[in-house]
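Schema walk-through. Below, the input block comes first and the output block second. Nothing else is stored per chain. Lengths vary across the set, and this one has 609 residues.
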Amino acid sequence: MEKTKRTAQIALCLSLVLMLLCGIVVSAVQTSGGKVVMRELAIETDSGYTMSAYLLIPKTATADNPAPAIVTSHGYLNNKEMTDANYVELARRGFVVLAIDQPDHGDSDVTPDFFILAPDGVYQGALALSRMPFVDRSRIGVTGHSMGSWSVNAAIQADNLNETPLIAAALIHCNDPLYQDAAGNFANPYGSRDVAVISAIYDEFFGTSVSADGKPLSSPYFMETATAQTFLNFGRDPAQSEVREAYTEYREDVDGKDTLRIIYRPPIIHPWSHFSARSESYICDFFSKTLGAPNPIEPTNQVWQWKEAFNFVGVIGFALFLCSFTTLLLFTPTFACLRAEEAVKPMRVKDKTGMLWFWLSLLAGAVFGSLVYLTLVSMGNSMAVAQGEAMGLGLWSTACGLFTILSMATYYFAYGKKNGLDLAERGVKLPLKKLGLSVLLALIVVTVGYGLVFVEDYFFLADFRLWTLAIKAFEAPILRYLPYVLLFFTYYIASSVATNCFNYNSIGGKANGLICALFAAAPALILPWIQYITYYTTNHMMWFQKTMADPNYPMFVLWLFPIVLILFGSTLITRVIYKTTKNPYIAGIINALIVGILTITNTCTVFVG
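--- output ---
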């Protein structure tokens, strides 16, 4: 076991180096190597709530030399860090950037009425920028992805009430532009502002229409809609106007100002557009042209990908920390009794029946998880709870955990018991003292692990993430939603028991853990494959939302994207810790806590009661 200890010591040092490297590189990219000052703000809005935001100020922006400024906003169930490509690239080009947490998201306040104040964030951001002495009030732009563009459109409508508008340019990103007035007539609500739209060809939520025979049409048909054509024709009836095309700049004189309209159509899906170099080039090009970039850089010259790459290095470091720190704690007097006397060996499968049980149990779990997913997350999301996403994913996790327990029990009584499977010897049965120490050890590991996340945030304004998976710091009020974390315990503990006490065997040799991890992640792979193969081949999704009253199936499928890595990685973590402990509960509790906290800190929280 001394070799195990030395290996864990080396791995712990490596994990800390990787997390430190993440912070250093992310900070360097966000600040353009020190040319941009980045701060986190808590803004007291005119609407009465506190809004969290990142403010990026190029050092060239001063009271004597005010710079153009842009508000960036994330979409539904996300947070300000999700707009990192925008704030990194726009700040590089000399723009002051305010990246906001929308109300009820991130570190902003939970407001009394989501549908009244949720669209308010972008306008409050524009107001905040207009009061900063280093901002040119005549050159303020706004953009937001998905729900963020709902907020952009709301900001335009609020700004139209001002005698002197604040907003000079707007980019609608993966949402639909305004094209009617309050009475439903064709109109140009944007007035003389320059406006662009990024409409992903395979958007799951926007760009929809209805065919002549009443059938729903999705985003691939967007350019044929009245929405697109009225927008590009500056509010005129499309039936009496020329047909206009994507990627073409259309200019007209509006109230004495040369005004721009353009639609970009990248062949990508909705969530990929805020992680796309192509979409980012459109954003940089549009605002550079309309607001004037103080530091002109080619739109395709982008560095935000380095930030994303090293954010993922942080994820790897964090996972490595969980394994190595847990292992080293086992060599302390308090937790030494939890350490196995020697590294756990895989069980030998005696016959073809045993092999069949192995493969069928993995397949059954993957099929069950796939079949019940949409039903259970729809049920949880429809409940009158503060976090519908956490409830939905929690219910699914619980159901999958119960199915895993049933599967293990069936295997044990039908085959395993009479073929030598000893539950105590494999670690399924533990003395109460050891179980209590397992819980304590897991709590210490998670607390210290998240402590490092807060250190990363404090010193570098960085976190550990990959696309929509984010391990980030959070404000104290989020702790009131910790009860949702309990919904994840059944699955992650049961999964650890199944992966290690039942399925750690000679099948697959050294690849046994990878096989278990792939089957664990299978539901999160199968449903998106079906959805998007169908969408790309037929221009229609397998699961879509027919009306606003129906479950939002496309959104629920998108929730699976980060879960692929979560399920795969958590399974491998359980195997590493089990080999040293012969105890499946330590890793199961650690994973449940991490995934639960990750879920409640990266979603929308609504006011209940």
